[in-house]
Amino acid sequence: MHHTDICIAGAGIIGLSLALELHRRGLSVTVLDQGTPLAEASTAAAGMLAASDPDNPASLRPLADLSLSLYPAFLDRLHALSGTQVPFHTRATLQSHADASGETFSPEALSKILPQLKPRNHHFTLIDEHSLEPRNLAAALLAAVKSTSIDLHTSTQVLAAQSIGDSVELHTTRGTFHAAKFINCTGAWATHSSLAPGLAVAPKKGQMLAVAIPSTLSLPLVVRTHGMYIVPRTTGPNAGRAIIGATIEDVGFDKIVHLADIAHLRALAADLIPALADAPQLEVWAGLRPSTPDELPFLGPAPDARNQFIAAGHYRNGILLAPATAHVIAQILTGEPSAIDLSAYSPMRPLPATAIAH
């Protein structure tokens, strides 16, 4: 039988970032993962810290801005614990808008920023936005966790969580655990079991590819439209490749890659940057984003479950929101005032009528 202050289900970017923050505050932490740490959405992502993406819900902005403010200290802590520095690969994004309202660049101005961009019918503006390599981040985060006393259990699925008095009893595939408090950070699987009844978190599949950037193309920033993005890797072992994504599919837990979808993504990219049409393809993959009906995460106490909490449903922004999620959930667990108003992310908030409880 295992006893701990905090037990976290899910060793993705959210769960492990939270574990580190709680450990920093002096709490004993156990993390249980049904598979391998950081093997799902955390390393399938493109790595854009896209707080200003116009496709984000407006209510996400306070949490996103908080996370951006915390990111430098977050990366510094990972570096100190792991010895691995996680660099930013880009510091700007050309963002397409549906129309020319607002301040957008003329074709002449765009040609100075990215000469090989063909804007077609897109209207672009330049956003101050960073991106990083999620695989690099994952390696540093896992090494940081392993350098501490955090108790990490792989291949350990939480089957049921039962609140008993002032603690929570967790039944898993590898025995029973007891914790003062339990947090469900299992991403797309958050409501696939009995851990969060009544909440709607569903997987949204995203297929992606990586290509080698042609030597004739200088691509120092991200290019993003409503249906596609191109994210270059500019440093480290993956320098010289570009990530092109991503589909959004409601197909359950299917991660099969379809060549027709990959070809469509490449065609969208090549329509904007023709030099990518024949770029050598290096890799294809698919991930499962944890989505909610209003595209906002669930952060806070689980409904009708004493000492149980949820931090899941980050959809396309798990990499961006990890530091802020760790910060505000730690504040909730330790009784501190929250850095921001969390009502928009409450697990008990009203949801669109189309929401289906899992």
Automatic annotation (TrEMBL):
Signal peptide: none annotated. Transmembrane segments: none annotated. It comes from Edaphobacter paludis. This is FAD-dependent oxidoreductase. It comes from the Bacteria. SUPFAM superfamilies: FAD-linked reductases, C-terminal domain, FAD/NAD(P)-binding domain. Coiled coil: none annotated. GO terms for cellular component: cytoplasm. Keywords: Oxidoreductase. InterPro entries: FAD-dep_OxRdtase, FAD/NAD-bd_sf. GO terms for molecular function: oxidoreductase activity. Residues 5-331 form the FAD dependent oxidoreductase domain.
